[in-house]
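User: Let's play a game. I give you a shape written as tokens, and you guess the letters that built it. Ready? Here's round one.
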């Protein structure tokens, strides 16, 4: 009986490690692919800004690349916020503003992968979104912790804004009870 338990636990451990490796490999490949797609779209597309607005990104499409240099945070942003997208990188909330546009651009990512460095973010940090057509620089204005039902942080704004959302606390085991929200505004040229 103990031998059976030992073998079962060993098999479970091997499967768990394999699954973690698969998820990490999937994320890394998606990041490489996303960066390649972003670079290709920056140099080869001749679409006008108006045509781009008419062709809204579809779930899984590359929206841009988020960078916060002081934190060493750099991740590709994909359209959508479902589990598959968040396993691959940061997700752009469908319907929220696109990089540099007027309104609230909302990005989400897991606290234990792509947005782990956000635990060290400070007011005044610069956040760059490299989009297919241009780069947009935002400045962190505030951070707050809210309950999952506090969706007012997703509301549209009249000025260009960026909202980053992840689960909180960062070192919590299991589903975290709150959300950590970073609000940034578009830097003046």
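Assistant: Ready! My guess for every position:
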């Amino acid at each position: 009986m103990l031998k059976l338990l030992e073998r079962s636990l060993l098999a479970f451990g091997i499967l768990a490690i394999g699954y973690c490796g698969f998820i990490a490999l999937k994320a890394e490949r998606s990041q490489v692919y996303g960066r390649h797609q972003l670079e290709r779209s920056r140099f080869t597309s001749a679409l006008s800004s108006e045509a781009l607005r008419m062709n809204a990104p579809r779930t899984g499409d590359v929206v841009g690349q988020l960078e916060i240099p002081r934190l060493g945070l750099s991740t590709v942003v994909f359209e959508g916020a479902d589990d598959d997208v968040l396993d691959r990188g940061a997700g752009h909330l469908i319907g929220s503003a696109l990089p540099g546009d007027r309104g609230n651009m909302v990005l989400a990512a897991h606290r234990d992968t792509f947005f782990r460095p956000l635990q060290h973010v400070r007011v005044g940090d610069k956040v760059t979104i490299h989009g297919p057509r241009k780069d947009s620089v935002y400045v962190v204005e505030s951070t707050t912790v809210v309950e999952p039902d506090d969706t007012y942080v997703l509301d549209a704004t009249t000025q260009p804004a960026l909202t980053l959302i992840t689960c909180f606390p960062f070192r919590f085991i299991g589903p975290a009870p709150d959300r950590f929200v970073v609000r940034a505004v578009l830097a003046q040229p």
